[in-house]
Queue: 3 jobs
Job 1
Amino acid sequence: QVQLVESGGGLVQPGGSLRLSCAASGSIFSINAMAWYRQAPGKQRELVAAITSGGSTNYADSVKGRFTISRDNAKNTVYLQMNSLKPEDTAVYYCKAEGAMYYSGGSYYVGDYWGQGTQVTVSS
C-alpha cells in the first residue's frame, strides 16, 4: 500500500503565500505522476496542478503564474508553492499519486492514492 501525508495548510491573508508538501510512503518502486487537487465547499474537486516523474507540469488556468508544483523523486514528495493567494483559493487541498507502483508479498501492484487533505483558508 501507499500512504500520502500532506502538510503546510493554514490561514493566510490575501496576497500571502503557503507551501504545501505531500510525502508518499510504503514499499514504493515508482510513481508516474503526482498532483494537487482542491475542493471548496459545495463545489466539485478540481485539478490544481500535476507533475510527471520526468518533470512535465500542468496547471489549472486559475492558478497559472501564481502556483508552482515541484517534486523530489528520491523522497517521493511533491510540493505546491502558492503565491498571491486569493480568497477563492480557499479549499481543502488533496495530494494524489497516480500510477504508484509498490512491492508487496512478492508481487508489484499499481494504483492511484489520495492523501487525507489539508485546509487552506485565504481571508483577512
Job 2
Amino acid sequence: QVQLVESGGGLVQVGGSLRLSCAASGLTFSDYAMGWFRQTPGKEREFVAAASWTGGTTFYGEAVDGRCPITRDNAKNTVYLQMNNLKPEDTAVYYCAAAKQLTSEAHRNDYWGQGTQVTVAS
C-alpha cells in the first residue's frame, strides 16, 4: 500500500521559514516524480513545485517561484519543500504527490498524502 506522509507544517510569522517533508513508502520512490500542491477552502488545488526522479530537474508555480526550493533524498524516500520568506497568502494545506511523469497538473498524479497545514500569521 502506497503511503505519502507529510510533516513539518505549523504556524509561522510573516517572513519566517518552514521545511515540509513527505516520506513515501510502498512504491519505488525513484520511479516517481514528486510534487507539492496547496489548497485553501473553496479553491482548486494549486501547483507549488515538482522534482524529477533524480531531483535534477525542478520547476515551480508562479506564487512561490524562487522562495520554496524542492529537493528529494531517494535514499530516504523523502521529498522536501523549504519554504522561505513566507507570506499570509501562503496559508494553505500542503500536499505532496507522486506521478510517473514530471507535471504541474494535479490530476496527473497517482498518489497523494493527507496534507499538512501551514498558517502564516501577519
Job 3
Amino acid sequence: VQLQASGGGSVQAGGSLRLSCAASGRTSRNYSMGWFRQALGLERQFVASISWSAGSTYYADSVKGRFTISRDNAKNTVYLQMNNLKPEDAAVYYCAADESNFYNNPQWVGHWGQGTLVTVSS
C-alpha cells in the first residue's frame, strides 16, 4: 500500500490544521492507520492511530482533547484534525498503516507515507 499525506502548513499557536492521508494500492486489506511526528533532532513520536473499523482510537497524552483522528474507508483516507495547535506540535507528520493494530509502536508499522510539515508560530 502507498500512503500520500497532505494538509501540512504554517499556523499561529491556537490555530487548526487538518491532515489527510490517502492509501492506494492494496487497499482491499483492512489496515489500521495513524500518525507519527518527528521534530528536528528528535525521535519519531506517536500521535494517534485508528483501527480499520474505526472502533478504536489511540492518542498520545500530549494531543488528547486537541487532536481527532478519523477515517473514511470508502475513500481509503485517514484524517487528523488538529486544533489549538502549540509550538511544540511543530514537526514533520508521517502517515502510517499496517495490517495489524500498531497502537503507538512505530516498530509495528509496516507502511509509511512521506511526511508533511507542520509549523506553529507563537
